[in-house]
Specification:
Blueprint lengths: L1 E7 L9 E10 L2 E11 L5 H11 L8 E4 L3 E2 L3 E2 L2 H8 L3 E5 L5 H9 L13 H10 L4 E3 L7 E3 L2 E3 L4 E6 L3 H11 L7 H15 L7
Parallel strand pairs: 1-4, 4-7
Antiparallel strand pairs: 1-2, 2-3, 5-6, 7-11, 8-11, 9-10
Helix pairs in contact: 1-2
Length: 208
């Protein structure tokens, strides 16, 4: 299973301008390559940049899926997962540990008086439409086959929440299983998080 996973580098609240975007290419859990670029914080270029990084790399023809940890990078630079899937002709799978507070997301986009120093997000209506078009988050529990028996009892594996474009729920489960080495988060996403953090701040910190 050849996939590319994207994650952004960390940035302070007061930051304006570009943010690092890292893509990690994996065959299963083995890292085969890295791509990187810059996206605008709270901008509208994330989808276009991901398409460009894949097409310009030597890995594009071999990729079978794109993985994201959340539907936005660089703050509110929201990814059009259906547009990304259509442009690259491969599925897109969004993976998160828990569902976000959508009411809080909406308030952050549309509030005229945000509680943080960041001003109201430009293009909020379009960004919210992309968030809605990605569909409801689905709980990705273990398949019946992957349930493990211990002392005669069934024990479930880690649970994740997903959004998907271009693949079924069962296909999504297979992608996650093929790319997860340990823990909950697939290895391509975990490595992308570590690299983006390490390059931006000089050291990696926190879990993906």
């Amino acid at each position: 299973m050849n996939v590319i996973a994207f994650d952004d580098g960390p940035f302070p609240r007061e930051h304006r301008g570009d943010v690092l975007l890292v893509g990690v290419v994996c065959s299963g859990t083995r890292v085969d390559g890295i791509v990187s670029g810059r996206i605008r914080r709270d901008g509208a270029d994330a989808t276009r940049k991901m398409i460009d990084l894949v097409r310009r790399s030597q890995f594009g023809q071999h990729l079978q899926a794109v993985m994201l940890q959340g539907i936005a990078v660089g703050g509110f630079n929201v990814v059009d997962i259906h547009g990304l899937s259509k442009a690259l002709h491969i599925p897109v799978l969004v993976v998160v540990r828990r569902p976000p507070d959508m009411a809080a997301v909406h308030r952050a986009l549309f509030s005229e008086t945000p509680t943080t120093p960041r001003p109201r997000v430009a293009g909020a209506a379009r960004k919210w439409k992309l968030i809605q078009s990605a569909g409801e988050l689905e709980l990705l529990g273990p398949s019946r086959r992957s349930l493990k028996r211990a002392s005669g009892l069934l024990t479930s594996g880690p649970k994740l929440w997903i959004q998907r474009a271009g693949l079924s729920l069962e296909d999504a489960r297979r992608v996650v299983a093929a790319t997860t080495l340990h823990g909950n988060i697939p290895e391509p996403l975990r490595v992308a998080h570590l690299i983006a953090g390490g390059i931006t701040t000089g050291r990696s910190r926190g879990r993906a």
